[in-house]
Amino acid sequence: MDSEYRIILNVGGVRHETYKHTLKKIPATRLSRLTTNLANYDPVLNEYFFDRHPGVFAQILNYYRTGKLHYPLDVCGPLFEEELKYWGLDSNECEPCCWMTLSGTRDTQDVLKTLDELDIEVDQTEGPELYKRFGWEDDYHNQSLSAWQKIKPRIWRLFDEPNSSRSAQFIAAISVFFLITAIIVFCLKTHPGLRIPELAPFGNFSRNHRSTSSRIHPAQINIDKSNSRPHPTFMYIETICNIWFTIEILARFASCPSRFDYLRAPVNIIDIVATLTFYIDLLSSMFGATADLEFFSIIRIMRLFKLTHHNSGLKILMHTFRASAKELMLLVFFLVLGVVVFASLVYYAERVESNEDNQFVSIPIGLWWAVSSSLFFSNFEIINFQIVTMTTIGYGDITPHTYLGRLIGSICALAGVLTIALPVPVIVSNFAMFYSHTQARSKMPKKRRGVLSMDQVAQHVKHAPVRNSNGPTQRKNMEHTPLVSNNHTPPHTLI
């Protein structure tokens, strides 16, 4: 009989039986070091007990038998990796057929970690969690918060967490209203019909030489339509909007948990710079605005990125482009490669045959044929032709006239479709993944039951109240009481 070579493992109430030499196949693991001196060995039943997941252990034991580790599909990925870590195994030892499953699990963990970093609020931070973000958790539990420590988190939630309360939603609505109004005003004040033309200077007439006897004839007054200024009403509206933006910036800066993180955020930098440019423009208009200073007001249009603060979908979209940076760079690389190659081919193709209408006077103009949107009569015209074709725009301002050139143009258009279309599903997949996880997080319960750790359980057991046979409840010190019965063997440490 080979019973002396067999070993019984009780994992989570399920008994597994195998040979001892099977567990020795993978050295330096928990199962390869089993001895009868361990505290989890039961000499009566002649088995080792492990309070672990029995379903996962079936795959682990099969790994010892066959030398191939397969990823189970009926358990969560982090649970499987945690069990492997407990048994002293590496999750990277999975078979190639399970790499996609393992990679998908890790991608999900990365997505959840990224969503936490994006600060997309799902649960409203209240109580200890709210004051923990400010580093005042101890003061909150000790009830030693000052008046400012009580008010500061509330102000921060009003301006930074739109869904925390009705007041926060009202402030968010005001912020969005002023933001959209400022953008509309910024666009409308450039319309020629809403601007006031400047009076052009005429002759040697000036205020210093003007006398009471001087007469100005209407024919002498010229209107300079090329130079005009916005209607004063736009300045009044912008002033009101920027007063609100200033109040919002000061309130958020004064109440934020970390001022360094606040000043480091790109959206906050744009908001501060855009507000400063308005005040600079306002002061400049009092002393005569110049076109150079007015150019910097274009920064205010960047305030549109503030909408990501009020909409999680926009925030996810922005992060999708960051997460798809490799695919976008690959797209640009292949696009540039195709543009240069086909621009060179079409240039020489049009010169091989006799062609009086040859529009490809140089290779650079061919790039426009693939990407750009206007014709440059210079050395860059062939480059432009190539760009229009690869992006399938096809303006028709530059066209090949030879058969070989048209063949190259057809291949160029087909290559452009493939080059642009292939990376798009990856970007769409990233957005769908982020968005689906965000929707799933929003449906999670607001408060979940907490689970004590083993150290906390030991503390509860140590100071647990017990009842004597006489009746009164006493508190028993269980510091030296072993957790495992030692009727047969002395207590040892679990491996």
From TrEMBL:
Which residue ranges are recorded for the region named Disordered? 465-495
An annotated GO cellular component: postsynaptic membrane
- Leader peptide range in chain numbering: none
For biological process, the GO terms are:
action potential; protein homooligomerization
Topology class, membrane? Multi-pass membrane protein
Transmembrane portions of the chain: 170-188, 328-348, 368-395, 407-435
Gene3D superfamilies the record matches: 1.10.287.70, Potassium Channel Kv1.1, Chain A (3.30.710.10), Voltage-gated potassium channels. Chain C (1.20.120.350)
- Domain (BTB) spans 5-105
Q: Where in the cell is it found?
A: Membrane
The source's superkingdom equals: Eukaryota
Composition skew (Polar residues), residue ranges? 483-495
Q: Which UniProt keywords apply?
A: Ion channel, Ion transport, Membrane, Potassium, Potassium channel, Potassium transport, Transmembrane, Transmembrane helix, Transport, Voltage-gated channel
Task: Respond yes or no to whether keyword Ion transport is given for this record.
Answer: yes
Q: Family, per the entry?
A: Belongs to the potassium channel family. C (Shaw) (TC 1.A.1.2) subfamily. Shaw sub-subfamily.
Q: Provide the protein name.
A: CRE-SHW-3 protein
